[in-house]
């Protein structure tokens, strides 16, 4: 906590005091580029499956939707340094609300809300994930961070199922240990615009706002929003989005949210 405050103070100082640029550079080149603040962890949810063989940037397979190029930057908050060679898993729903490996589970509104509550209860009792219904793997993948702590995916903007606002699940491992589990989110005004686009508009009336999603509220989702997001061509979001999010974590600690902590 204390180091976070110091970093924030130094960052503000460095931003204001242009003349002290050299000094700021000495404090670490990443100080100004990244936020070394612990990102709150979030629930793992019932649909994680470890697929270590799915090392790929493009996770779309046959899924069509709004292309989303998503860059993660992983920082070690104890040192304010990038984490090199962490593996990062992401998994998410397609534009219709389906998860791969669970395509028999309908994203239908009310059932899904009840099922989600049941899942949460089951998970809090330490019961493993929901049993897969099939072997599809779309919108799942693993990447390793480079020396700047960065890893990039090419996916589609996630869909929603009635109780859940659009989100992407993230899990990070360092030397095989699960160090971070969370869900990342998007701004409501962006979601509002995406609801007008095909194929998302087919389910537009089912999309809740972030604040109406109880998991978003419970997990402090407002601290895990992909803030840096823009149209890939610089003009229209309908052609695709590019986003970046920094996740701060302590790589010496095992995640408290990991169900199969390894
Ligand atoms: C997935 O594929 C394996 C190997 O082909 C098979 O044994 C298993 O039953 C499949 N699982 C499901 C849920 O379909
Ligand atoms: C990167 O991490 C993987 C798995 O955690 C490990 O097997 C590999 O040796 C690491 N590579 C480097 C260069 O540290």
Descriptive tags:
262 residues, 5 helices, 5-stranded mixed β-sheet, disordered N terminus, globular, 4-stranded antiparallel β-sheet
Report on this model:
With 262 residues, this protein is α+β, with helices and mostly antiparallel strands. It is 19% helix and 23% strand. The protein is built from five helices and nine strands, in the order ααβββαββββααββ. It has helices at residues 2-16, 21-26, 109-124, 188-194, 214-218; strands at residues 67-76, 81-82, 87-91, 140-144, 150-156, 167-174, 177-185, 228-231, 241-249. The strands form two sheets. Strands 1, 2, 5, 8 and 9 form a five-stranded mixed β-sheet that branches. A four-stranded antiparallel β-sheet has the order 4-3-6-7, with no helix packed on it. Strand 6 and strand 7 (177-185) form a beta hairpin. The chain is globular. It starts with a helix and ends in a 13-residue tail after the last strand. It binds 2-acetamido-2-deoxy-beta-D-glucopyranose (2 copies). Residues 132-135 line the site of one 2-acetamido-2-deoxy-beta-D-glucopyranose (NAG).
SSE blueprint:
Blueprint: H1 2-16, H2 21-26, E1 67-76, E2 81-82, E3 87-91, H3 109-124, E4 140-144, E5 150-156, E6 167-174, E7 177-185, H4 188-194, H5 214-218, E8 228-231, E9 241-249
Parallel strand pairs: 1-9
Antiparallel strand pairs: 1-2, 1-5, 3-4, 3-6, 6-7, 8-9
This protein binds 2-acetamido-2-deoxy-beta-D-glucopyranose (2 copies).
One 2-acetamido-2-deoxy-beta-D-glucopyranose binds next to loops.
């Amino acid at each position: 906590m204390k180091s976070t405050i110091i970093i924030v103070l130094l960052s503000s100082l460095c931003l204001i005091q242009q003349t002290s640029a050299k000094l700021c550079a000495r404090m670490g080149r990443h100080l100004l580029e990244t936020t070394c603040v612990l990102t709150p962890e979030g629930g793992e949810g019932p649909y994680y499956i470890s697929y270590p063989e799915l090392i790929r940037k493009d996770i779309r397979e046959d899924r069509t939707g709004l292309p989303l190029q998503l860059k993660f930057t992983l920082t070690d908050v104890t040192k304010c340094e990038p984490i090199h060679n962490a593996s990062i898993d992401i998994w998410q729903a397609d534009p219709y609300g389906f998860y791969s490996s669970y395509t028999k589970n309908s994203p239908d509104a009310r059932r899904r809300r009840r099922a989600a509550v049941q899942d949460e209860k089951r998970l809090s009792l330490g019961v493993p994930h929901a049993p897969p219904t099939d072997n599809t793997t779309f919108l799942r993948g693993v990447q390793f961070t480079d020396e700047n702590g960065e890893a990039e995916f090419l996916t589609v903007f996630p869909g929603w199922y009635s109780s859940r606002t659009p989100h992407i699940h993230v899990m990070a491992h360092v030397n095989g240990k699960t160090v971070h589990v969370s869900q990342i989110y998007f701004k409501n005004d962006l979601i509002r615009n995406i609801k007008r686009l095909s194929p998302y508009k087919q389910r537009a009336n089912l999309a809740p706002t972030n604040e109406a999603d109880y998991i978003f509220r419970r997990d402090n989702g407002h601290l895990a929003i992909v803030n840096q997001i823009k149209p890939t061509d610089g003009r229209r979001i309908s052609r695709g989005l590019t986003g970046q999010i920094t996740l701060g974590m302590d790589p010496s600690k095992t995640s408290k949210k990991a169900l199969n902590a390894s």
